[in-house]
Amino acid sequence: MPAQDEHNLVETAAPQATVTPATGPADPHKGEVAHWTPDGEVQPAGAAPSEEAVIDAIATVHDPEIPVNIYELGLIYAIELHDDGRVKVEMTLTAPNCPSAQELPLQVKEAVEKVPGVSDAHVDVVWDPPWDMSRMSDEARLALNMF
């Protein structure tokens, strides 16, 4: 996954934000959750697994019917990084009757749990907002000849 710099992850159709870790013991946000959503919501965080590492891990998961990783497809709606190493991922599927509905969330959980600093991963499948092709990154559109 190409990155322009460590704070500008990947340009996609949906706006993205980065997680800004808290620094030092005097940080007023120490102990809060870092939260990234496609809509750009960000809350600060303390010491937690690297956001880049979590996204890279998620990007190793591919929909078996589409030759693009699920992050580039825009299936990841939110990632919460907690100070104690817990990670919560909200994701969706391309359709409610997706044949991979059981395996993709499990694959995301297993991939995230391998990231250094992660103590536990929880994956929720959500349906609101419904996924559509506008959530795909430019890289995904190019790979699928959808320009």
Q: Can you summarize this structure?
A:
The chain is α+β, with helices and mostly antiparallel strands and 147 residues long. It contains three helices and five strands. Pfam families: FeS_assembly_P.
Would you kindly provide a written description of the structure presented here, covering whatever features stand out?
This protein has 3 helices and 5 strands; from the N terminus they run ββαββαβα. The N terminus is likely disordered. Helices cover 17% and strands 16% of the residues. The chain is an alpha+beta fold and 147 residues long. The chain has a 5-stranded mixed sheet with strand order 2-1-3-4-5, with helices on one face. The chain has one domain: Fe-S cluster assembly (FSCA) (GMP Synthetase, Chain A, domain 3).
How much of the sequence lies in strands comes to 15-25%
Q: State the CATH topology.
A: GMP Synthetase, Chain A, domain 3
Low-confidence stretches: 1-32, 35-47
User: In order across it, which strands form the biggest sheet?
Assistant: 2-1-3-4-5
What does the main sheet amount to? Answer: 5 strands, mixed
C-alpha Rg, in Å? 15 Å
Our count of domains comes out at: 1
CATH architecture: 2-Layer Sandwich
- What is the helical fraction, as a range of percent? 10-25%
- Cα end-to-end separation: 19 Å
Key attributes of the depicted protein:
147 residues, alpha+beta, GMP Synthetase, Chain A, domain 3, five-stranded mixed sheet, 3 helices, 5 strands, 17% helix, globular
